[in-house]
Amino acid sequence: MSNSDLKILDCTLRDGGYYNDWDFSKSLVDQYLITMDNSNIDVIEIGFRFLPKKSFLGPYAYTTDQFLRSLDLPQDLMIGVMINAKEILDYQHGIKEAIRALFNKEEDSPVSLVRVAAHFSEYENCHEIVAELNGLGYKVGFNLMQAGGRSAKELCSAAGDISKWSELDVLYFADSLGNMRSDDVQKTINSFKEGGWSKPIGIHTHDNMGEALNNSIEAIANGASWVDSTVLGMGRGPGNVRTEYLLIELQKRNLGTYVPDNLFPLVLDEFTELQKHYGWGPNLLYYLSAEYGIHPTYVQEMSGRVNMDAQQQVEALNYLNSTDSSGFSRENLSQAFLNEGGNQKGSWSCENWLLDETVLIIGPGPSTKKHAEAIHSFITEKKPKVISLNINNDIKSEHIDAYAACHHMRVFMDAEKYLKLENLNDLNGLADGMAHDAVVDVLATIEMARRFKEFDPNMWEYLCGHFSKKQDYARIQNLEEVVFSDDLKCRKGFFIKNSFGYQNNCISGCLAIGKHQTRDQTYWLRLDSDDLRKEVITELKSVSKSIKDLDKK
Questions:
Q1: Rounded CA gap, 8 and 202, in Å?
Q2: Are strands 139-145 and 402-404 parallel, antiparallel or unpaired?
Q3: Distance between CA atoms of 202 and 215, rounded to whole angstroms?
Q4: pLDDT category, 465, cuts 50, 70, 90?
Q5: Alpha helices per DSSP H over 263-309
Q6: Element (H, E) at 253
Q7: Residue 346: pLDDT band with limits 50, 70, 90
Q8: Cys bridge to 45: 41, 80, 141, 479, which one at CB 3.0-4.6 A?
Q9: What is the DSSP letter of 147?
Q10: Distance (Å, rounded) from C-alpha 352 to C-alpha 415?
Q11: 3-state class of 233 per DSSP?
């Protein structure tokens, strides 16, 4: 491949828009355009060109010719946009009218390249889209999405059909699920060629498994000449191959005339801040989604839910793995959240509980926060039975008669809030009076303990045993000894605490290094710290002596 054949297409403003609704600031875009030009990037895909949407999307979702003329577009950069085939195919007035609604003639537009993104199942219906765009004078690319996992036979057949489209300039394959390896890349390119495609081949990678850069380089080595990338990898889900990394590797191989150094200020200053805010990039959940063949948008949506912990995300992924989740569906996402895992027991029934009562149901939306004062006044005056959908921090707990968890996972998400003493007292009628009154808190705690003891006496006895310092000390004496010297012997054990988090050790080794002389407590030394572990043998005597000295004081 000659240097002139290689084309790097940066699609930061298009793929990155999945994180900010395609609403980039003008100052950022101005700097981006200058940087792309100075780095000798060949093509920039400056956004989508959607048909009108009901919800708000920024200007880079539409990239109208009028808007593009307001930008200082470098003369040497080829400007491209992308359209979704499904949107065009579903247009009520037909394909031709959809294209005419979106595009002027190329000679009257700042845009030179239009790419059509189509799922594998849609490509057979897309020839007319390509032909219409070509008829308007545009260079046309076709992105075959979710090529990963397709057999050589399927890929060869698709290429054979598409090779008959004389109007098409570039055929892309997209690793939409981020689960392709280098052998998959090689297989795809070879299958395209065997199917009869002889024009340029492009690749669009995602970085779920950390393979985006390797796959891009592998594609070039096997004959692909168009390669997509984004600044700092900003893109849907975990993101794409990083433009800066790709240019560095191409420079090392003397491919192209790209200048990666000119990208670095933009990466380090502007896009690093964006990444801190939006949080794209590879992680374990994206890796698992690729392994399971799950669309990365599921993980992106889950990551945006602050009340959803890691275990719940993994459970949702396991559910999605049991369904066809290669394409994103909000209905399927909701089912993943609602998925009932395990068995639930209970005897209470709400049947007839609110019969003939006036009921006020309060949801969690922004209007509740906005009108909280009015809601409080209404409750005080009308005295309805109030049900809160999940925990609502905007309505005082004393006004709420019951909480309705929308599904079992929300109970776990809000567990700490349900377990506040005032909530436990209000919901269970433990004691009369306001929470955090000293006497009321004591009475509520005693009543709660009494109910626990009645409900499960065996568990109560077990817990009481663990609250006994003498029993705890007796247990410690049965632990294995570690002998450091004649006068220093320590019991070894494990410290267990779930708040370490999954990224830390949930179980760490520890040593009983002394007994408090008056308070009947044991001093423990955790060994999961490198510094402590390295010093433990040489310093243990002095540590123990210091503790004993403190006890004497």
A1: 10
A2: unpaired
A3: 12
A4: low
A5: 264-265, 272-278, 284-292, 296-303
A6: none
A7: low
A8: 80
A9: -
A10: 27
A11: helix
CA angle 494, 413, 377 (to 5 degrees): 135
Residue closest to 238 by CA, chosen among 292, 187, 278, 191? 278
What's the rounded Cα separation, in Å, for the pair 158 and 246? 28
Q: What stretches of 437-496 adopt beta strand conformation (E)? A: 481-485, 488-496
Q: For the chain, how far is it from start to end, CA to CA, in angstroms?
A: 81
* CA gap 63, 14 in Å, rounded: 10
pTM of the model: 0.63
Cβ(256)–Cβ(225) below 8 Å: no
CB-based contacts of 183, cutoff 8 Å, min separation 6: none
Domain map (residue ranges) of the chain: 7-282, 287-338, 480-552
Q: Which of 9, 20, 47, 11 is nearest to 280 (CA)?
A: 20
| Of 73, 10, 97, 20, nearest in space to 45 by CA | 10
Q: What pLDDT is stored for residue 502 in this prediction?
A: 46
**349's tokens:** 């029934």
Amino acid at 182: S
Write down how long the chain is: 553
Sign for the CA dihedral angle at 203, 140, 94, 158 comes to negative
In the chain, the percentage of residues whose pLDDT exceeds 90 is: 51
Mean pLDDT of the chain: 85
Beta bridge partners of 145: 119
Which pLDDT value is given to residue 368?
85
Alpha-carbon span 366 to 393, nearest angstrom = 12
Does residue 326 register a pLDDT over 50?
yes
461 vs 381, more confident: 381
Q: What angle do CA 106, 111, 113 make, to 5 degrees?
A: 90
What would the two tokens of residue 246 be? 């790709």
Is pLDDT above 80 for 472? Answer: no
3-state DSSP helix/strand/coil percent for the chain, to nearest 5? 45, 15, 35
On whether the CB atoms of residues 426 and 444 are closer than 8 A, the answer is no
Instruction: Tokens for 355, please give them.
Output: 């019969």
Return the axis-axis angle of helices 310-321 and 284-292, rounded to nearest 10°.
Answer: 10
Give the position of tokens 């964006």: 274
Residues with Cβ within 8 Å of residue 341, at least 6 apart in sequence:
315, 319, 408
Give the three-state DSSP class for 93: coil
Residue with tokens 């609403």: 23
pLDDT (tens digit, 9 = 90+) per residue, 511-529?
A: 887 777 666 778 887 777 6
Q: Which of 213, 195, 45 is nearest to 116 (CA)?
A: 45
* DSSP secondary structure letters along 55-78: S---GGGT--HHHHTTS---TTSE
Question: CATH homologous superfamily of domain 7-282?
Answer: Aldolase class I (3.20.20.70)
